Amino acid sequence: MAIDGLMDDLAFLGERVTRARPVLEHHGQSESHIHSRLPDAVAFPLTTEEVARIAAACTAHGVAMTGWGAGTSLEGHALTPRGGLTVDFSRMDKVLDVRADDMFAIVQPGILRERLNEELRATGLFFPVDPGANASLGGMAMTRASGTTAVRYGTMRDNVLGVTAVLADGTIIHTGSRAPKSSAGYDLTGLFVGSEGTLGLVTELTLRLHGQPEAVSAATCGFPGMEAAVNCVIATIQTGIPVARIEFLDEASVQACNAFSGQNLPVVPQLLLEFHGSPAGVAEQVDRFNEIAQGFGALDFIGAKAAEDRSRLWKMRHQAYPAILASRPGATAVVTDVCVPISALAQAVSETQADIAASPIPGPILGHVGDGNFHAILLIHPGDEAELAAAKALSARMAERALRLGGTVTGEHGIGMGKLAFMEQEHGAAWSVMAAIKAALDPKGLMNPGKLVRQ
Amino acid sequence: MAIDGLMDDLAFLGERVTRARPVLEHHGQSESHIHSRLPDAVAFPLTTEEVARIAAACTAHGVAMTGWGAGTSLEGHALTPRGGLTVDFSRMDKVLDVRADDMFAIVQPGILRERLNEELRATGLFFPVDPGANASLGGMAMTRASGTTAVRYGTMRDNVLGVTAVLADGTIIHTGSRAPKSSAGYDLTGLFVGSEGTLGLVTELTLRLHGQPEAVSAATCGFPGMEAAVNCVIATIQTGIPVARIEFLDEASVQACNAFSGQNLPVVPQLLLEFHGSPAGVAEQVDRFNEIAQGFGALDFIGAKAAEDRSRLWKMRHQAYPAILASRPGATAVVTDVCVPISALAQAVSETQADIAASPIPGPILGHVGDGNFHAILLIHPGDEAELAAAKALSARMAERALRLGGTVTGEHGIGMGKLAFMEQEHGAAWSVMAAIKAALDPKGLMNPGKLVRQ
Fold it and tell me: How far apart are the C-alpha atoms of A392 and A386, rounded to whole Å?
């Protein structure tokens, strides 16, 4: 079998390549409702050169390669529907260089988001992209992750300046430069960010860093209804207030978060906000936001200036997923993600709420509304096929609704295996262009097969 | 001949396709020192569908296709070294839609930058990317243009949300969505932006718009030396002051601008600045910049708050190129462009100044220093082969210096024909990946051949 030959060629990894059943099973699971066969083996490389040898060996034996970061993907990106080798980057987790003067860092893909920012703390800089989960930077780049701070600092597209990638045949390439911008040829960095491991295995990332804000202020702001909250977001963005975070929780989400985190936010649609800037700038932003919020009938604006209050607020937001899971005892979730033009956001959320209300399952809604991006956490009992079918149908209608309103079927979770069915509808002939690019870089179709492109 | 067959197939364009010599000659010229053969014919389409028919016909006859915007490229992007058909977009110059709520506009590629902003004025929004020349938006997208405001608002990479493109075989694709972000597949928008017409002909662009700033203030600030000015820029950026523009002029550039525009800026290295924000925010930015500038020995800070003073200042900056040309009577110029990590900027400028000083020709330096991007305008007498050789050698050494310092051979002018020779040095194996992508989308090599990729 191909895998036996591959294992011989990977002997140089010693104990860092394995076919042990528990390891395969760990890498055959995901945060999604998607199931797939297990990988045939798992490798734990330490260097770019090792990854290049692994890729060349996989190509020689015709074995598929799938990268693994922290296992937090929600669309089955790191699963192995065709088996093959999982390349686990958890031991490539170093910060290789920090250039504070030029405001970038070079990291290995396995480093986790929270640890990166711990390592950066003393430099006065930080990496802002925050998808909630303590994901790996490699995984975040591959799904083009974003999250709570994208409204101010952008997504991974905006914050990855270059990558080192290993192509299927073991060729090592470097994209981007260390200059702040370039017009020298195709934007290969941008092509790799969001490519879900289908073009190559990324082994290093150059990340744009930002100055830690001098002053930070957070707040919650309740509204009499979802439309008022969302319209307040639209006005805030259009006015150009550079909010660092502006998150929406519907009533069901607020209830779940209160119960889980011991908070007592009023159970109405809430915005959670953060403002970054100079002390005077932050104060001005807060005033301006407040003025807009009053115009939309805001019920209360509760500031959280002290670091510990802010930390409690964002801990609550980051725990929204387990909190919502806990709101239906024994439940698991189908987590969906769509993104629409901001002018269509109230309509998209309202139609989705009505659709969920008419379904047999609960589905709290929350999201990064400054970007037009929201999620429904569709709660189902494990093993209940009718509920799973209902959740999938709701999720599909959300995706179709987003497309009808000019949006996209995923703002930040990616396609993986979960949303392949919508790619043709969203992209038309451009999906075939993606397949052509994939075939040009990976002619044997060995890089994370079964994801993103038609194969 | 292939071109005769093509002309038959393009008869549907009526008088909007021509082989008239003056038209061919107009499209065989450029702002660069690069010469090439003339196109065989020029077409003036009006719609995406016409461009699709043109492309299909060119492919059927094996004729090359090269887009033409406003003819302002500095690296020969729109020249036709292999002849073929030039597709002139000057009649596709409409704003098709403005969605003020969602802060985007859909435009045809032939619209010129200044007219776009005139059409947007009443909406309270503007398109910020400003390369100086009154370029076409299509051309700006294809070279990944940036300019004076990129330090605040980003480059074309950041401000094009989607394109409609016609591939070589006439297939029409749409990239991007109208949502503010997406994780749905490869970033084809980013791939097309900066592709220099080598992957397809872009026929529509969705552009990100920004709110017109409530308050604007501009200033000039002179320094005792280049290093002081550049180090002040570095500190300003690192401090996180969101300057909207921060431009550098060396003494020779100041002298030329004074003479051409009737100004009397002190003949020392100057920074030209603009600040955008709320009235209080702008005042704070000015104060903070001033504090930093004092620390670097700034000689004078001359504010330009009134609209007419600002307009005079930026008119002078925009006329720097003709001003510098006029500083050596009868001269033409080799205009170069490099970009380096901002920490290497003082060294890059200083070594370049010394290199130019040791050469037989003058070469004022100016640039968008907030991005690490600067230009030398190398002044030569037309027909003087020795001077042209000296200018080319200086330009080549600038490119190599930029690479040595971790930068890129072009920050904003692009590769075109002028910088092909540096692509392998900058990108290594990644240049072959670009060629593979090109071949996947344009297997017959008919889209703007002789530019950007190895062919």
Answer: 10
* Cross-chain Cβ contact A188/B102 below 8 Å: no
Relative to beta strand A104-107, strand A95-99 is antiparallel
Supply A436's token pair.
């052509």
The verdict on a CB contact (< 8 Å) between A211 and B410 is: no
Number of A/B CB contacts below 8 angstroms equals 274
Could you read off the pLDDT of B305-328 as tens digits, one per residue?
A: 899 999 999 999 999 999 999 999
Sheet holding A104-107, edge to edge: A95-99, A104-107, A201-208, A160-166, A172-174
pLDDT of residue A327: 96
**For position B138, what pLDDT does the model report?**
98
pTM over 0.95: yes
Q: What is the rounded CA–CA span in Å between residue A377 and residue A332? A: 9
Question: Which residues in chain A have Cβ-Cβ distances shorter than 8 Å to B162?
Answer: none
Residues in B touching A195 (Cβ below 8 Å): 186
Amino acid at B61: H
Neighbours of A333 (CB within 10 A): 23
Per the document, the length of chain A is 455
Determine the pLDDT at residue B326. 96
What pLDDT does B289 receive? 97
Distance CA(B29)–CA(B455), nearest Å, equals 23
Rounded mean pLDDT of chain B? 96
A140 near A131, Cβ under 8 Å?
yes
The DSSP secondary-structure symbol of B275 reads E
Summarize the confidence of residues B62-69 as an average pLDDT.
98
Summary mean pLDDT of chain A: 96
Structural domains in chain B, sorted by start: 2-90 (3.30.43.10), 95-211 (3.30.465.10), 215-321 (3.30.70.3450), 328-418 (3.30.70.2740)
Q: Which residues contact B122 (CB under 8 A, 6 or more apart)?
A: none
Intervals of chain A under pLDDT 70: none
- Contact state of A190 with B422 under an 8 Å Cβ cutoff: no
